[in-house]
Structure formats: structure tokens, C-alpha cells
Design goal:
The chain has 398 residues and is α/β, with parallel strands linked by helices. Helix content is 36%, strand content 20%. The chain has 15 helices and 15 strands. The chain has helices spanning 11-18, 23-30, 34-40, 65-68, 84-99, 123-133, 160-169, 192-201, 217-223, 250-259, 275-281, 300-310, 325-336, 352-361, 386-397; strands spanning 48-53, 74-79, 102-103, 107-112, 141-142, 148-153, 175-177, 207-211, 233-238, 264-269, 288-297, 316-321, 343-349, 367-371, 382-383. It has a 13-stranded mixed beta sheet. Strands 3-5 form a two-stranded parallel sheet. Helix 9 runs parallel beside helix 10 (250-259).
Length: 398
Amino acid sequence: MESPLWGHLPDHIIINIFSYLPLKERWQAAIVCKLWSDCFDHPSLWRYFKFVFKEDADSEKLMCLEKYSHVLKHVEIEVDQKQKINRDNTCTVISTLARCKERRMQAFTLNFVGENPLFFKGGEIIDALAELFGPPSLDTNIVFTLKEVDLSHMSIVYSDILFNLLAENHPTLENLNILNTSLNCNTCTVTPYCILRLIQKCPKLRELACFYCSINEDVLLALAEEDRAPFKKLSIVCRREEKYGKDIANEAWEKLVKKHPDMKVCLGFDHTCPLHKLSAIMQPSMPIVVLRMDTFTYLDREVSLASAYYSKTVEKLVLHCKGTPELQAALLSLTANSPNLKSLHCYTVLNQATVDDILRHCPQLESYTLKTELENHPWMPTLVGRQVTRNMNLKVKQ
């Protein structure tokens, strides 16, 4: 039996095979023959690209940047920011994308995966992002502007300037995530006025993730204007800044939900948020699908409010709190009236009867953490049904 003639495979099959190979192996395959080298340069292989900068050898990935930057549409950068060479490589990528004479990039993600060096503020990366978000040179051909920007895994403080540039120069923006909840970044300086301006400049915005202190009633009312595209999801986290902030009235949420009845809200409270602010921020008209309360305090009243306000909409509930009989009663009330609850994680000890009743109330649960005795952390969740299948499929893909 003759061996297959690999050099005569159709282009689209070779390109499909190349799409599964890491960049280094793709380079090695490309030197086999001219056909494979031509396939290596095919634009479809360079529309989605992930740069990883964790060691010195990763600098070789910059070699492809000048040649293929004009076809890149979705770019993700993963960087260990502790090493200067990795930060320099990241800035080089961002600046090259910003100076590209033919821009097609529509989605950009930047993830920090290391520890910040001492006294690191990320000024050089902020400057590079400002160039990317800012106005292009006059000889640049803008095929597409940015539609998706995710800066949620960067442990640096943002300012209004960066997002004013984004709003002014990328009016097609649809998805923005600036919810960087790292412990290294414990201050938010993005103002509601900046977010309001971004919403006004980007009428197609449909998903926004930011801190509660960066929005106000004017922001919600701007999202509720008649001529806006459907708004799908708002993710907000409340921290220490809420101590002096003004709470958003329920009337503003009512108007927003009336305009966008399918909108979903994800609401989180971290351990620095003043406890008395939780009940003031939680409004009955908020269409909460995910609620996280990581306060490590008594949450009896707040869980009771969640039961009264969000039992019909909540799909995921996460609690880091102190266990009391009142908390368990509130949990039973919530789970008994939450037909859409699929994930419940309560990181405090419950009695066995409460756990049994919760599981009886919520046969639809796909994952849960409900413990009847103290265990060493991390507490591992129990996966049920489709969630087990999803995890198995994920492991197979990996």
C-alpha cells in the first residue's frame, strides 16, 4: 500500500491541521514544502492569535508580528508581568498593533498571570493601551474598530483617560470588561462620568463589567434610552469605595429593565464593602442572575432580601459568611422559590437537615458546595449531571 502524498493535500485541509498546532510546531511544519509554507501564511490562521510571554524565549513570537498584524482580528496577550522583558514584549505587541497601516482587530484581551514587581504601576502598558485605543495616524486604513475589550485580569489602576480614548475612537464597541478584582488593585478611579460618556459614544454596547462606584443613575438612564441596541449583561462588584458612594435608586433599575427585559445582572460584594451598604445597593428591580457575597460576616438579612427580590431570576449564588440558624432559614426560603438556581456554593457549615432540604428543593442544581462539617480549604464542589459532562469534555479538549 502506497503512503499518502502529503504534499498534494488540499489547501483547506492543511490549513485546518495547522490551526491545531502550536506556533513553534507550525513553523517547523511550514518548511516541509512550498505548499505548506503558503498555507502557513494564510490569513485565516492569523485572525485569532494568543501571545504568551512568560520567559525570554517567548520573544521569538514577535517575529511574526510585522508580517501578520494587518490580518489579526482577535488578539489575546498572556504575560508574566514580573519580568521586564515580558512587559517590554507586551508593549511591543500593543504598539505594533496600534501602528499597523491596515487595522482589522476587533477583540483584544490582556491577562496578567504573575505577581507585580515592587512599586509597579504599569505605566508603560497603560501608555501602549492609550496608543491602541487612541486615534490612528492619517495614513491608516481602518477596516474594523474594536468591538470587545477585556482588561479584567490586569492588576493595575485605570483612569478615565484610557476609556475616553476608547469611547472616542471605537464607536462600534459592544463588550467592555474592566472589572480587575486583584488584591494588588484595590482602588478604582474610573468615574461614572467616564462610563456615561462611553455609553453615549458607543450605542451598540451590550455587555459591561465594572465596579459599582463607576456607575450611577445617569449611566442606567443612558442605557435605557429608546434608540439604543439591546443591552444584555451588566456585571458589577462593590468594594470599599461604596462607603461614601451614592446608591442607585430602584426607579432607575425599573426603567432599565423596562427597556431591556432580557438583561441580566451579576452582582458581587467583596470583604471590603461596608456591610450596611449591601441592603442599600440590592434593589428589588435588579434582574440578578449571579449573586456573590464574599464578606465573611453575618449575612442573614441580606440572604433574606435575596430570597424576596431575586428568587425568580437567580441562577448562581456564592456565599462566604458566618453560619447561623437564621442564615439557614433564609437559604431554605430562597432555594424553595428559585426554579432557575443551577449553582449554589455556601462556604460555611450547615446542618444535615438544611442540606437535605436544599437538595430536595433544587433538583436542577448542576454544582453545589454544601458542607456539614469543617474541611481543609479549598472546599471542592459537588458536580451533578450536565456539569460533570461539561468538565469531562473540557478535559478531553485539553
